[in-house]
Amino acid sequence: MLRRIAPALLTVLVVALGVTALAARPPQGIPQRTADFVVLAGIAGLRWDDVDPQSTPTLWRMAQDGSIGSLSVRSAHRPTCPVDGWLTVGAGSFAAWNGSRSVDGCPSAAVTVEQPDGIGANLPDQESVVQYNQQRLPWGAMPGSLSESVRCSVAVGPGAAVAAARPFGRVDRYASGLPADPRPLLGSCVLSIVDLGTVKGADPATRAEEARAADAELARVLAARPPRSLVLVAGISDTTQPARLHVAVADGPGWERGWLTSASTGRDGYLQLVDLAPTALAALGRPMPERLFLGRPAVSTGGRPADLAEAINAPANADREAAAQRSVSGVFFTLLAGVQVLLAVAILPLLRRARPHAGPAGPTPVSGRIVAVMELLLVAAALTVPAALLTDAVPWWRGEHPGWIFAGVTALLVAAGTAAVRFAPGYANTLGLLGAVAGLTTLVVGLDVLTGSRLQLNGVVGYSALQGGRYAGLSTVGLGVFLAGALVTGGWFAQRVHRGWRPAVMVAVGGLAVVVVGSPYLGADPVGAIALTAGVSVAAVISAGGWLTVSRLAWATMAALAVGIGFAVVDLRRPAAERGSLGRFLSALGDGTGGFAVHRSSTENFETLVNSPLTVLALTAGLLVWFALLQPWGGLMRLFGIYPAVRAALAGTVVAAVLGGVLDGAALDVMGAAAALVVPMAALASLRVLGHAADRTRPVAARSRANGADDDSGSGGVGPAGGGDGPTGGGGPLGAVHPRPIAGPPPGAPATVVHPVSDAAGERRGDADEPAEPTASGSTPDAAPTVPVPPRQVSRSSTEVAAS
After folding, report:
1. Close Cβ partners of 124 (under 8 Å, ≥ 6 residues apart)
2. Would you say residue 656 has pLDDT above 70?
3. What are the residues whose beta carbons fall under 8 Å from the beta carbon of 115, sequence distance 6 or more?
């Protein structure tokens, strides 16, 4: 009875863990009104490197008293040109200007602003811009949503006119520049948007001069600000390539001396450009538009250093790290894919010649030194991604040659990790080797997640704040290596227990991983948690043996669907502004705008598929597994037969990685990251089991299958050499001392076979291949007379015949 209901119980347990992890969310609270007026001042291209007490004294004092952060200026166009940034500010969503663009990617023509009267202005191109964003771009942004949410708005300068224009092109109050006395203009409407100029170029002297001019205009704005007002200063766009992080400062009641953050980033000190519009409305106490902004209202958090120079150094340092990450990341993953492809090619002849043959004819065995070197290279390849993650604990981006520094530190960490695995107590055991590499990887990524994912932010194997896609939790690569490491670690634990307990062990380890991935406090990846739930369910149902049948696959699918539906129900019950990505997507489906999300996901999948080096890695891994490792000479099927829990873990990894990548718009990137860990280890384990395919196990009287025990728990019996790996007892890397091969008796063996001695109780003593113990007189007991027989011919086992 228990055997029949076990799948259902396991499914309920996995679902409960998944929904619990996803449903718990950090308290966000309801934004309260803090101001009667909001002044949003934009300086295109302004970075924290441009801010100092000499060139920008006004902004320096404002940052001293207010809250600061790094601003990601992502828009619907890359790069974000000034006009794209201003349009995104007014839309509260990723938007872009239409029309032709110059070589640098920005519109070649200036924005046309008409002033038919002395009060407001019109933008004749606004109608076509709205149509372009609504019909051609995947975000469905509505330019002018911010101004439509207030009764009256003021724009100063052409950039501000783009942000303040309503969808039909009207600007309520407009001035081409600040008047001599800005007080009446800034106090005429609750919302004022001011264009303070542009800071561009790479020359420090030129940038300092332009920043000084913008700071002088900011001083006039602060002197004329209305009472009880919030002033937001933002570097609203890029002006040079590549993209950089920019300045964000908020000064007003309730914004004193803190870090700026929002629910869209989930990271203290980081803000998105799309957060400015909801921040202004929340400060004014105005409701959000019916079609929600993509951004979330900003808040001020504590923990900022008292010394402003030290505080500003943090966002400036983050900007430098993000810029260095962009140049190093692509090279790293290209080299990683290339190295793994070379290892895949190099291991093929070793697999062909790894298995000892029973007869005198056969390929020459591979040198033990060559195999040992290949094993170390495979371990190093599997540990490269976690080593690269640890490298970001070192400020390599501050050096003159950051790429070489990163490469050197990563190489040292890979060497250290490989040495730790090599000299670990379980290295001679195939199962122990798998557990050591998987456990080390899971530990590295898991500790980073538990401590706030600091190494993944702007890290080479993490995510970049410049991309504006993710700021906290697990990255795409981190998800791949973590789920693979967690499932293989679960398989290692499960293989060491009784068969009946293996599904429970897989659920326990996998369920903990689901919590880490899905919790908003930790991995913050609900899609990854749902995918991992499916992988854990697959691994659990086949960990005790057997194939992935339709019914078992159905249980796994039901578990993933149950977690997804359960979280969706919980998420939809929250207020609209507090919903997660899944709840917002379902809400969009309900109001007819879900097509934008589907289009974005499919576009992201395609672009990632054709542009990412991890696609090459995933495809190479698939080819190696299918055309080599799964062949009779490849050894992987033999590994699966010896360790069914490991087979279950690898099957669950494939399911979770494929689902996680496709559902998260990452195509094969999650699978590629998982393959970077799993495939080298699978190839190494296949070499190990092939090297011991001809070993013979000596029968043991005490070995039985009593109480449902089986012989694939990893001990593998007691072999002649005392090994403990696999069914033959042979353990350790190829080239180690092996037990006697099955081709026949050893040289000099007697041509007699001594039958075992039986005691009075009939218990067998000794093995069939051992001579009886002599008596004190030197003769054998009468109960066991020596009978001459011909030498025994040992035949190959059926498993070996099938594998050859």
Report:
1. 112, 114, 169
2. yes
3. 121, 122, 174
**178 alpha carbon, distance to own chain's centre:** 47
Q: How far apart are CA 351 and CA 329, in angstroms?
A: 33
* Spatial contact of 439 and 446, defined as CB atoms under 8 Å apart: no
69 close to 304: Cβ distance less than 8 angstroms:
no
Rounded distance between C-alpha atoms, residue 165 and residue 372, angstroms? 69
CA–CA distance, 161 with 530 (Å, rounded to integer): 44
526-542 helix and 550-572 helix, angle to the nearest 10 degrees: 150
Q: Read off the DSSP letter of residue 192.
A: E
Task: Specify the higher pLDDT residue, 722 or 509.
Answer: 509
**Contact (Cβ atoms closer than 8 angstroms) between residue 502 and residue 8:** no
| CA–CA distance, 142 with 237 (Å, rounded to integer) | 19
Contacts of 588 (CB under 8 A, 6+ apart): 594, 596, 597
Answer whether 165's CB lies under 8 Å from 177's CB. no
Say how far apart CA 756 and CA 784 lie, in whole Å: 7
- What pairing do the DSSP bridges indicate for beta strands 170-171 and 121-122? antiparallel
Helix (H) or strand (E) holding 178: none
User: So what's the pLDDT on residue 791?
Assistant: 44
Q: Taking the chain, what is the end-to-end CA distance rounded to the nearest angstrom?
A: 40
- Inter-CA distances, 777 with 47, 773, 780, 782, 785, Å: 97, 11, 8, 12, 15
Predicted local distance difference test score (pLDDT) of residue 504: 85
Q: Give the integer Cα–Cα distance in Å for 308 and 520.
A: 31
Q: How many CA atoms lie within 13 A of 424 on its CB side?
A: 22
Number of residues assigned to the chain:
804
Assign residue 45 a region (left: φ > 0; alpha: ψ between -120 and 50; beta: otherwise).
left
Least reliable range by pLDDT among 22-26, 178-182, 574-578: 22-26
